Each structure stands twice: as C-alpha cells, then as structure tokens.
Give the backbone structure.
Amino acid sequence: GQNIDQPTEMTATEGAIVQINCTYQTSGFNGLFWYQQHAGEAPTFLSYNVLDGLEEKGRFSSFLSRSKGYSYLLLKELQMKDSASYLCAVMDSNYQLIWGAGTKLIIKP
Amino acid sequence: DADVTQTPRNRITKTGKRIMLECSQTKGHDRMYWYRQDPGLGLRLIYYSFDVKDINKGEISDGYSVSRQAQAKFSLSLESAIPNQTALYFCATSDDSRDTGELFFGEGSRLTVL
C-alpha cells in the first residue's frame, strides 16, 4: 500500500530552527509537496520538489532524496505565526496526491 | 473575496438527510477536487473533475456524488448522510498547465451528522 509518515507533533522555540521529516512509500513518484495549514483554515502551498536536493524559499527550505523516500521541511528563524500543521503529500505514478496526516508544530516563546 | 468559495461553511444535520456542499471558483482552473479531512488522517480524495464532462471517483467516493455544473462550479452531495461522514470538507482547484500541480483550497465546510 501507499504510505506517508510524518511526526504527529513537534515543539520548537521562537527564533530557533526546526526540521519536519517525511518518509514515503508510493507507487511511483511525480513530486513531493509541503503545505501549511493553520487551525481551522485551508492548506496553503509551501513547496514542491521533484528532483533530489534542497529548494530554498525565504525562511523555508525543502529537501528531497528520492532514493531514500525521504523529505524534510526546514523552518528557520521561527515566528509565532509558524504555529500550524505541515502536510507532506506525494504525487504517485497516476498523478494522484497521497497525503500524510500532518505534523502539528507548536512554537513557544 | 476568496478565489475558491465553499458554502455552507458549517452545517449540522441528521442521519438520513440529503446534504449538498457547493464550491465555486474564480481562478479559471479546469481541475476541481473534493477532499475530506479527519483528525489524525491525511486528506482523502472523494471525487475530482478535470473538466465539465470529466468526473472521476477518488479514494472514498462511496456515499457521495458530485455535479460539475460549469467550469467554475463543483458540488458535492451526500444522498443520505450518516454520522461517519462528519468531517471537514475541502474543495480545491488546480491549473493543469503548471507542472507543479499546486492545489488552491477553499476555506472548508465543516459538516456534523447527528
């Protein structure tokens, strides 16, 4: 079966750096997405990786290793507004998105 | 105004009732989707449509039906609601001309079936 694993919850301190991991087992691979979802709101797109390596976008970076079935989202200079759930999703060989359950990130002052 | 609008935002209903959730978009996208989100689970695809004449079942289509009335409108119906359909429902769109396949979500419709 297809599976996306990510930690259920993480806690970090304002101003620090946090890395949220995602491992996947899917039927084929056509890209990996990270979305941010604040409580009670819609998910919003953060990043897309289809090739191995690091993609940097401001305070957020996303890394992909296709051979290891692994990605991480790196958040730097954490702000209180970064408190949210972070959803990892993989597009399989049929171009269907398989979603992880999300990682709830709690930022403490 | 939001680019992807869902109505109603919240609905409480009773078992056996027919419910329709509506979605409209101003993004001009051909592709539209309905997902449900439950605590502790990933988003699960109910139905998707790549254009007005193209409707496809997703992972969990049983108990649901859809209608694509126009490019901009995609409705989800629960013919006879049951308590385990209590969930947060999201409509989403995507632009098939973009390689990334980024989804744009509506604000969600929270449905409670008693």
